[in-house]
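Researcher: Re-running this chain for the archive, since the previous output was lost when a drive failed. Same request as before.
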Amino acid sequence: MREKIKKLRKVKLERGQNNIVIDLRDNASIVDGHYYQLQVKLPNGDMRVLRFLYKMPATL
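Model: Regenerated structure tokens:
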């Protein structure tokens, strides 16, 4: 089942390492223990797809 998650903020990535935290606990579309794909559009227009397993954090 493919479903777009809505109302996520846009994040601007800088050169080098980026550490970004997006609190998804209140988003009912995200389920603990499920795999998701994140599409990232690079400044040159290329798209990258990252696959990740979501684990609900104990605390943020």
